[in-house]
Design a protein that fits this description.
This protein is of the alpha+beta class. It is 32% helix and 20% strand. Its cofactor is FAD.
Length: 589
Amino acid sequence: MAQVTAWDAEVDLLVAGAGPGGMAAALVGALEGLEVMVCEKSEQIGGTASTSAGTLWIPGNTQSRRAGYDDSPAQAEIYMDRLVGGTKGRDLRSAYLETGPAAIDYYDTRTDVQFLPCGRHPDYQQNMAGAAVTGRAIVPKPFDGRLLGEDFRLVRPPIGEFMIFGGMMVGKDDIPRLIGRFKSAANFAHSARLFLRYLSDRLKYPRGTRITMGNALVARLFYSLRKRKVPIRFDTAIREILREGGRVVGAVVESGGRTLRVRTRKGVVLATGGFAHNTEFRKAFMPQPVPVHSLACETDTGDGLTLARAVGARIDGDQHRGGAFWTPVSVTRRTGGWRGLFPHLALDRAKPGLIAVNAAGRRFVNEGASYHDFVEAMFESHKLVPTMPAWLICDSAFVARYGIGVVHPGTRNLAPHEKSGYLTTAPTLEELARKIGVDPVGLADSVRRHNGFALTGSDLDFGKGDSELNRFNGDPEHRPNPCLKPIEAAPFVAVAVWPAEIACSAGLATDADGQVLSEDGDPIPGLYACGNDMASIMAGTYPGPGTTLGPALVFAYRVAMHAAGRGDAAGRATGASEELGREERAAAR
């Protein structure tokens, strides 16, 4: 294109998108001395990560090793090679594993983006060599939203189903203490502190300021950027990538009705969240029929892929199974027509006394499998028998003990949930089957066979309860199998679940430093991608908790280091990891 002579602004690094990938790249860039501008087309930061569990999968991370959970990136590489298969993308996977711990230590020691080890949190494919049970998952520390002051309103909130009392976030560790608040003085005191804090917050803020999970991650990134005075321009979208002599030199930006040309000395980073709400890309990369539901942020419309394709970039989608990462969701309906999606990640499917069936009333999956594997099984079953939706089947005793979806544990009156259309109940399995349009004979046979497995403790059809992951999410107090119990206490209950993506896997092809590749396979100078705009190194597979956020933060770090001319330092041990290494060497002597 012709040389641009008139520029409205000039920075080192222009970042498109204020999700975790974009904010992390901007943060590292600023710490490495770059002048950075972030453009976010919505009115809030955080994107899809704001509503996520916030876990990162980082094999060999310092936080877990310090807590005594040994892990080896070399074993993780064996695991990923088995899971993903082939040599394509292996250089990126190796870069991820080599850089991961150092990148997390960089954030942990130099910013307010800090993490805690999860301890026992099994990888999702325990039958594969190199899989681990502990040490690979970390989560952000809870964050006090009051530190952001008025800017707390700029943090995209989690989904309503992840909050109680209309705005109070609770973490996984809070749930049993809240449910058992009258069982011990410690539980009651903890619950009372949470509630009183929430009441105080609502006098000034639109929701509770004690935030956890993915909301804490994006808030910590935002807070770190604010402390370093990195500008974020809201309601600002990048409309065109500008090049001179084959190199990206800037972008056309639309902000507040004005069109600006921003020159970049180092590059443009695409981190717009992927293509979740782009009809063209969904049809191209997702299974048929294309799933109608999505948990991704509604502003994730494929902007990064569209912009990059216009300058000759390659979209990598052929080798990504299903093009996305999946979870089953149930559809919630409330007064006034409000509708939302509840992701069935881990709280109900693995518990004893629940099965999933298709329209033939037959089981088609180990219900305790990972959310991603569960949906892949839905796709396979649907090729032969309608399985969209699939149905989660249990009894009233199950709901009272464990809850199901948005129905909290302890719930005994199911009438309001049935009236809203969220679930269906019936005094017999035959009537339940007829109400939900499932074959009655098939459902009765499936429940009878499942109940027999529950008595012996061995699921001969799908192995529910056999794996570490199943048992981790099951009920450890139930014997002999923490995931199997007869379904027998009327009324019987059914909840419909549908496939929905939590993130995209297909995306822009890049090298190990996040440089976007052309159709010919060469890096496009000055153009980077990270987060969900970057084709996932997992290629549509799901190794463990934090499969999307781990690579987002690690490759954001590598992108910024490369743009700052520090690519040689990207994988070097820093901070706590270097200190830990000295301690281990000293211990060995």
